[in-house]
Design a protein that fits this description.
TIM Barrel, 2 domains, eight-stranded parallel β-barrel, 20 helices, about 35% helix
Amino acid sequence: MRFLDDHRPAHDLTYADVFLVPSRSAVGSRLDVDLTPRDGTGTTVPVVVANMTAVTGRRMAETVARRGGLAVLPQDVPADVVADVVRWVKDRHPLWETHLHLRPTDRVVDALHLLPKRSHGALVVTETDGAPVGVVTADDCDGVDRFTLLAEVMNRDPLSLDADTVEKPDGLERAFEALDAARMTFAPVVREGRCVGVLTRVGVLRSRLYEPATDVEGRLRIGVAIGINGDVAATAGAALGSGADVLVVDTAHGHQERMIEALGAVRALSPTVPVVAGNVVTAEGVRDLVAAGADIVKVGVGPGAMCTTRMMTAVGRPQFSAVAECAAAARDLGAHVWADGGVRHPRDVALALAAGASQVMIGSWFAGTHESPGDPMTDAAGRTYKESFGMASARAVAARTRTDSPFERARKALFSEGISSSQMLLDPQRPGVEDLIDHITAGLRSACTYAGARTVAELHERAVVGIQSSAGYEEGRPLPAGW
């Protein structure tokens, strides 16, 4: 990366302060761009879902890994739950998604509770042996008494797709043709008479566009975060024993002695998976964490949407400059950095990668999706939203200290930073995390073609970055329809 006219400013920069300059390009198509990171995590798109309680759970982890990314479970999840979630995610199929199902004798009200949890808005009605006998959508339940049996409203004898056929080399194309011929957008996938998942038309297309992030056994990948307090070796050992593919040693201030000690405890276990540590914002912080055993360093203090650190403490650093400096230091050591926080638009992802990050960590942006753990709610205007909160907020601190004494919990609650409750609206055009990944990767692929880059590494090598005023940034924003 270089600055336009070699004009490197004396002050630090945020993503909004900079832009990418188009260069001569031989990349003819966005599909010619390979987005695979080269940091050893096994992902095929440079997107990591942040280890936030309101963002990452089993459903998020499954869906993102199927599209090539990685989700990291939060550090405040009990070890037995971590093991259960990791096991569950690794048992999911890399092509079709896990289905919601009810029995014919269940009620419409049961379906109404489940349907908002999926972007496709449908569930499968199965017999006790797992055989699909119908499909129910939100439209089927509209205007119907809530206690009506599903047997009375379901679409009977739905189109089903044979699992063995779908798994063949041309299986996805044949599945799409079957859905198209039947004018259906959704169908159960059946193996030996039992429903094992579902496929949608857009899901088939995505399975051709994205390569899932899988381990050596072909199972979906998942990361696990741990803290730096308590018995770090035991916590890390439990996470690794559960089958975590990436271990994230996480604290708000990563450049401290406890982090160095925690990394020493983790390295003593001889982990065979990448170890990520953070957060820091300086080259010195990167060098110390890499020396202590980190393969990847998380960069970012204060840029997150739920974070109040900078307003509370004045501590932090504008994210673009932090990523650029830290990435350069990591590269000299054969390590990598993840840009954590501050991402609002696809352009920000492209800029973080141009600055040298191997991947970009996203939190609150993904909180307002069907796949995040919270229940969907409706505001006074009828808009659907989910609640999000920062991991240093009073709400998160309360969850993280639940095993402490009442006195200790109350004392720690006095020193919280971050927003405890924020409404993250579900975008009607992009209500699912897959929709947002499409949005992000489309912008990133285009950015690469403008820069003449065929890979993420080439984007960093070829990127020319300019500096703009707030008016320049505003000029690039689309005007509202009908202006």
